[in-house]
Design brief:
7 strands; Rossmann fold; globular; 198 residues; alpha/beta; 7 helices
């Protein structure tokens, strides 16, 4: 679904985070599970990480643990989510972002993650965010993200499906050009990895 006006994502996800228990439980976080599933790959990276669309902060908290050892940061468009994330992450590590702009400098992170976010955006906003994800990634760094290929079971306060862009895996692969991706039939989602060349 493509619209001409940018949706008010902050209002949508303030309400979702405030009212949907699934967004406030680490066990319901696809990103949390993806990081655990591919922990060995992530632990091989040094330095700083950024989780874009961090929600309640579970990935930020996980990547900041000694097991992973990142200086972990997060951003989200929802002030409600950022406030909740701030309760489980170190002070100053989670910030509110504006649509289409990650509030960090170029090449600032060795690992950038973005889980269960992309399908919640309209198509033009996905491409803008893709470029921002790549901008803040350091050369040699890894972008690790996921996208759902099915409708959400939930709607927003306007009655629209929370998954605004529903596309098959090959569409995501064409637009993200990952070095590797894994489509999972059971959950109708995919994981993508992209390494930034020097």
């Amino acid at each position: 679904m493509t619209t001409t006006a940018t949706p008010d994502y902050a209002t949508i996800y303030d309400r979702v985070v405030a009212t949907n228990p699934g967004y406030n439980d680490a066990h319901g976080s696809p990103g949390y599970h993806a990081c655990l599933m591919f922990a060995d790959r992530l632990r091989a990276l040094p330095g700083r990480s950024l989780d874009v669309g961090c929600g309640a902060g579970y990935v930020v908290a996980l990547l900041g643990m000694p097991t992973f050892g990142f200086e972990a940061h997060g951003v989200d468009i929802s002030p409600v989510a950022v406030a909740r994330a701030g309760k489980i992450t170190p002070r100053g590590r989670v910030a509110t972002m504006q649509p289409g702009h990650i509030p960090h400098p170029d090449a600032a992170f060795n690992l950038v993650t973005c889980f269960d976010v992309l399908e919640h955006l309209d198509e033009p906003d996905i491409l803008t965010l893709r470029d921002e994800l790549r901008r803040v990634l350091a050369p040699g760094g890894l972008l690790f993200c996921s996208a759902s290929c099915r409708p959400s079971a939930s709607v927003d306060h306007n009655g629209e499906n929370l998954h605004r862009t529903i596309q098959p895996p090959h569409w995501w692969a064409e637009h993200f050009e990952p070095d590797e991706y894994l489509a999972r039939r059971a959950t109708a989602d995919l994981l993508m990895w992209w390494c930034k060349r020097a």
